[in-house]
Amino acid sequence: MSDQADYAAGQSSQSHPPTSPPPSNSDKKNSYSMMNSLSIDNITTSFLDDQNKLPLIISPRYNDTLSFLTEWLTHNRSWVEEQMLTYGAVLIRGFDISSPVELEKAILALQPNLCQDYRGTSPRSVFDGTDYIFSAADVPATYPIGQHVEMAFLKAPPRQLYFGCIQAPSNSIGGETSLCDFRKVYNELDPSLRDKFQSLGLLYNR
After folding, report:
1. What pTM does this model have?
2. Dihedral, CA atoms, 59, 61, 62, 63, nearest 10 degrees?
3. Cα-atom radius of gyration of the chain, to the nearest Å?
4. In angstroms, rounded to a whole number, what is the distance separating the alpha carbons of residues 88 and 179?
5. Residue 200: Cβ within 10 Å count
6. Are 82 and 121 in contact (CB under 8 A)?
7. Residue-wise over 50-74: b if at least 16 C-beta within 10 A, else e?
8. Which end of the chain is more exposed for a tag (fewer CB within 10 A), N or C?
9. How far is the C-alpha of 187 from the C-alpha of 178, rounded, in Å?
10. What is the rounded end-to-end Cα distance, in angstroms, of the chain?
11. Model pLDDT for residues 136-146, shown as the tens digit of each residue
């Protein structure tokens, strides 16, 4: 209960609590401008926990619409990409995205130069109405997929990958997308093993 309601509850039926003046047109305009500003301050950033800085979470402060998100991502593209490099991954959540088509619009706002020439070796299906959105893997949700660097066997692996959750798993088995900072994995390898990788390279046998 607000302080004003507490005050009103303590008065007789003939007294009236003080009221605030209605917002002026100027106040309304300033409030609207603040809610729709494309400033970085108009989103919130956080982490899943205090110990793990992967990923950086971006969520709405005021406006959670798809139109705001696409404009904001386009306007702040360089900043978002900088956060990707710093933290390894960015998780955008809390915005009004409910279909593969809407997901594609959001991703294209951030990265207009998507590629679909090669989709890896896993079976995947393109979602209706999209050019770049396809299933991660057409396998049972309980099928384990180990940590890996996506398409590392290519001469030019993808620079960025985008995942989206349109429908959360209906049970607690499977469906999670785990993240791993392979920069940290590489730095924690024995230096002699790193030297072998550098001098001899890698041979992939599929």
Report:
1. 0.76
2. -30
3. 24
4. 9
5. 8
6. no
7. eeeeebbbbebeebeebebbbebbe
8. C
9. 20
10. 65
11. 888 887 788 88
